[in-house]
């Protein structure tokens, strides 16, 4: 069986070199090699048929079913006109100051034109609303919802209760988190204040010991720092600090023994005490003596318990 050999000269397929030469000469054009016949499409503006088709598909419904409006723009409010003028003047100042002597053309300003366009849309909608409400009132169509109107909710009450509980839980969690954060911040501040106070006390103590050491060594004779420390101690004792309260034992001892000074002869009579007769009353009755308590104060106890014999007779 002989092999089939394809002769290049006999084939219809062009080689790459031939294709490149044809493309260079302009014979070969981009795209498909086969030319496609072009069909020219003619557009006919048949106005009569278009109007007939429009009349065929047009729905003759009342205006209340369509609610279509064709209106002009509403008159511009004075404050809006003033705002547009101020914006134009401000844009003019910015443009002329930033670009030298270039004249400002408000029609070429995109920002001002955008502002005017939005204003025109607003005025168009305003005019449509005014005309539409007037037509609805002429047709006796209510435009306001009555006060006692009952609208059915889109979701059930149970679902809304779940939503409310979820929101309340979130608010409570946020409040709890905020409270914990505040407590943490307060603890940090209190700890910092405590550390600062201890450091200050340590520094004052170190400074006092250094001064005391200088005095002992004879390098200084100033003892004013001791007076300052005494003054601080007195101020602390006189302050309204609850820790500065004096115990009852200390108060009784201070009352009995005093605070130092001369005690001998303190109870002797003097001229002033002898002449003072305010507390003396000879007509006063003698106070009864209580042998149990060993004092002269009368025992005015009420609702005393009766004796054993009286209680025994009371049971009979």
Give an account of the 3D structure:
With 316 residues, the chain is mainly α. It is built from ten helices and no strands. It has helices at residues 16-25, 47-57, 63-66, 78-98, 110-138, 157-216, 224-238, 248-257, 271-275, 308-315. Among the domains are: 63-97 and 105-139, no CATH class; 157-223. Helix 4 runs antiparallel to helix 5 (110-138). The model is unreliable at 1-11 (pLDDT under 50).
Coarse structural class: mainly alpha
Shape: elongated
- Secondary structure tally, helices: 10
Helix content: 40-55%
Count of beta strands: 0
* End-to-end separation: 155 Å
Radius of gyration: 56 Å
How many strands, which pairing sense, and closed or not: the largest β-sheet? none
Descriptors for this entry?
Ebp2, coiled coil, nucleus, Putative rRNA-processing protein EBP2-like, ribosome biogenesis, disordered N terminus, 316 residues, 55% helix, elongated, mainly alpha, 10 helices
Question: What is the structure about, briefly put?
Answer:
With 316 residues, the protein is mainly alpha-helical.
Task: Please outline the helices and strands.
Elements: H1 16-25, H2 47-57, H3 63-66, H4 78-98, H5 110-138, H6 157-216, H7 224-238, H8 248-257, H9 271-275, H10 308-315
Helix pairs in contact: 4-5
